[in-house]
Design a protein that fits this description.
The protein is of the alpha/beta class. Helices cover about 30% and strands about 25% of the residues. It folds into three domains: about 160 residues, ANL, N-terminal domain (Rossmann fold), CATH 3.40.50.12780; about 190 residues, Rossmann fold; about 100 residues, ANL, C-terminal domain (GMP Synthetase, Chain A, domain 3, 2-Layer Sandwich), CATH 3.30.300.30. The chain is built from 18 helices and 26 strands.
């Protein structure tokens, strides 16, 4: 034992578990009267938000909730959802935020798999949740949320009502704080379903803390930002931004539904400074009516809004268009298994002098590891050895460090496979450039093999996005009697736009090698998850590909 291991114990005075729950307590202590939540007519300070999270924790404890119990929530982006991100983990319980677009069968599976102790459900989703609970093996306590800003259909299906529970706990004087280990589970998130059967991804307090802080560092998030909730809080716990915004004592502007009117109205009325979303959200804003855009951005006085984009590689065309609108995009990359984003396309000063189109190409890369992520690399999937940094050699993108899940709930085989060789294997294919930046080239299952040639679907998608009529595009494999496979492009047009398959094929031939040009083009609305990810497995099934469904 060396001298630094003698008589220098870890104590309550010099060590505490890292937990993002503490960010709320600090915000309430330091900025009690600053605005924390905007939702319709609701305005709450950070002290009020902290008090409500405490009341929720006391109420859940009174219902018998203990450490390790799963608290399942079916909520949109409302104050109650924000409160759950603090009140639930305070008890050492695990927050399981469900995708509000899921069907009853999927919800039943998740209730059973996660062994839900409590379900907190917004009235809008009462019908589907009632069916899911009826068919579930578990019998959770159900708490209804009746949002004052919702006037649609739905009923109360629970034995408790959220506001009444909080009111009953308001007399509690004991302050509850997280007493567990930073390795304890904080959240359970199910994979989005773009790759078929969902897996239960378990987060720990340390990882949530690290990713929240990294979000602040990567975005240069200032004190008191005005953050608009366009990103669902159920998706990777809002990429950990409920905790990041609390750490900066910002304003949470809640938005039940994402529409161009809602986004631009919030920018105008509340001075929104930051928001997050998948490429489809940003595309929606770019393609909004010109009058709406001008009205929304009118009060910025030359200032800019900062957007963070993830979920898929944004096209250079989209990045350039957002820049012209007055929105500066930060491109991040990640997966559910790594708390959402864990790499960032960190801007370099020398890019500023480049033409806009060329600069956008650099910004479209997935980038480098987050500050608090241990490692990100591109490796040969057979040897785990790094590929050359030549921007050409394709390998698998791998990650490791504190911003990685504990593992898949109840699936040790999948966990072991995911962490083989000391890395988390993303299944995404990419290259690494001489400057160290990573660029995704394809999902491993999205590679189109035509006549022995490997074709990147993303490369074709980037070309098609340059066409002025296209809102969204996805390219998958389609069986071909001669070539084995050929690219098939599914196209969603902008409102009012018109084009033809012949015109788009001609457009592709101007920018792509002949073997990369789509052999088939289909028009229509693309299937998407609630987070804006295009569900390629559905399109593979539609195209008739042999391996249509990911596993």
């Amino acid at each position: 034992m060396n001298i630094y291991e003698q008589n220098l114990p870890k104590t309550a005075a010099n060590y505490a578990a890292l937990t993002p729950v503490d960010f709320l307590l600090r915000a309430a202590e330091v900025y009690p009267d600053r605005l924390a939540v905007v939702h319709g007519k609701i305005r709450r300070t950070w002290l009020q938000t902290y008090q409500r999270a405490q009341q929720l924790a006391h109420a859940l404890r009174a219902l018998g909730v203990q450490k390790g119990d799963t608290i399942t929530v079916m909520l949109p982006n409302t104050p109650e959802m924000l409160e759950c991100h603090f009140g639930v983990p305070t008890l050492g319980a695990v927050l399981n935020a469900l995708n509000t677009r899921l069907d009853a069968a999927s919800l039943t599976y998740m209730l059973n798999h996660g062994q839900a102790k409590v379900v907190i459900v917004d009235r809008e989703f009462s019908k589907v949740m009632k069916e899911a609970i009826l068919n579930a093996n578990v019998q959770p306590i159900v708490i209804d949320v009746d949002d004052s800003e919702y006037d649609g259909a739905g009923e109360r299906i629970g034995t408790h009502e959220y506001e009444a529970l909080l009111a009953g706990a308001s007399v509690q004087s004991t302050t509850l704080t997280f007493q567990g280990d930073e390795w304890d589970a904080i959240a359970l998130n199910y994979t989005s379903g773009t790759t078929g059967e969902p897996k239960g991804v378990v987060y720990h307090h340390r990882g949530a803390y690290m990713n929240a802080v990294s979000n602040i560092l990567e975005w240069d998030l200032p004190s008191h930002p005005v953050y608009l909730w366009t990103l669902p809080m159920f998706h990777c716990n809002g990429w950990c931004f409920p905790w990041a915004i609390a750490a900066r004592a910002g304003v949470n502007v809640c938005l039940r539904r994402v529409t161009p009117e809602g986004v631009f109205g919030a920018i105008r009325d509340y001075g929104v400074t930051h928001y997050c979303g998948a490429p489809i959200v940003h595309s929606m804003l770019v393609n909004a009516p010109e009058a709406l855009k001008q009205d929304g951005m009118s009060k910025l006085n030359g200032g800019r809004v900062k957007g963070m984009v993830a979920g898929a590689a944004p096209s250079a065309t989209l990045i350039e268009a957002m820049d012209a609108l007055g929105i500066t995009l930060t491109h991040v990359y990640g997966l559910t298994e790594v708390y959402g984003p864990c790499t960032v396309c960190a801007p370099q000063q020398e890019w500023d002098s480049l033409p806009a189109a060329e600069r956008a190409v650099y910004h479209a890369r997935q980038g480098v590891r987050y500050h608090l992520q241990g490692g990100a690399d591109v490796v040969n999937p057979e040897t785990n050895e790094p590929v050359p940094r030549d921007g050409q050699t394709i390998g698998e993108i791998v990650l490791r460090g504190n911003i990685c899940m504990k593992g898949y709930l109840g699936n040790p085989k999948a966990t072991e496979a995911a962490f083989a060789g000391g890395w988390f294997h993303t299944g995404d294919l990419g290259v690494r450039y001489p400057d160290g930046y990573i660029k995704i080239k394809d999902r491993s299952k999205d590679v189109i093999i035509s006549g022995g040639e490997n074709i990147s679907s993303i490369e074709i998608e980037d070309v098609l996005y340059k066409h002025p009529a296209i809102m969204a595009v996805a390219v998958v494999a389609k069986p071909h009697p001669k070539w084995g496979e050929t690219p098939c492009a599914f196209i969603e047009l902008k409102p009012g736009a018109q084009t033809s398959a012949e015109e788009l094929i001609k457009h592709c031939k101007q920018h792509l090698a002949g073997f990369k040009v789509p052999g088939a083009i289909e028009f229509g609305e693309l299937p998407k998850t609630s987070t804006g990810k295009i569900q390629k497995f559905e399109l593979r099934a539609r195209s008739g590909a042999v391996s249509a469904i990911d596993v």
